[in-house]
Amino acid sequence: xxxxxxxxxxxxxxxxxxxxxxxxxxxxxxxxxxxxxxxxxxxxxxxxxxxxxxxxxxxxxxxxxxxxxxxxxxxxxxxxxxxxxxxxxxxxxxxxxxxxxxxxxxxxxxxxxxxxxxxxxxxxxxxxxxxxxxxxxxxxxxxxxxxxxxxxxxxxxxxxxxxxxxxxx
Length: 169
What we know:
By secondary structure, the chain is an alpha+beta fold. The protein has one domain. The chain is 17% helix and 28% strand. It contains 3 helices and 10 strands; from the N terminus they run βββββββαβββαα. The strands form 2 sheets. Strands 3, 4, 5, 6, 7, 8, 9 and 10 form an 8-stranded mixed beta sheet that branches. The longest helix is centred in the last third of the chain and has 12 residues. It starts with 6 loop residues before the first strand and ends with a helix.
């Protein structure tokens, strides 16, 4: 991480020596703690099933930081079809799984700091080597998140995201 990413927060007035280069959610937005007792539902750090009908994997939307080698990432959940989820589980611990074709999915994480909802943006989940989460590629639309993924973000935008996430309204 670059040394010059520290910032003085305009919300709390404190100086933060480093800025987080990513944020993540623990579950898809549709997950409810009540599902924990449902025999057809499960939530792990990387997979989720709701009522045996909805299937999700956790992945990363990576966004290049302009003018540096840094990458900012959003840890998000995407829904997959039953067949694609079954295939993802089949190869989950298999060496060479990164040769799998991407799995189509729908973004299932609301990133509230974007002016338009991020729920149900079209995605492709690209399987990575064992031990790494899938890379999530957004459909190249004019949604601000998709634009950022394609074109990158500035260090100022990374700071803005940090202030918004660290001090929600």
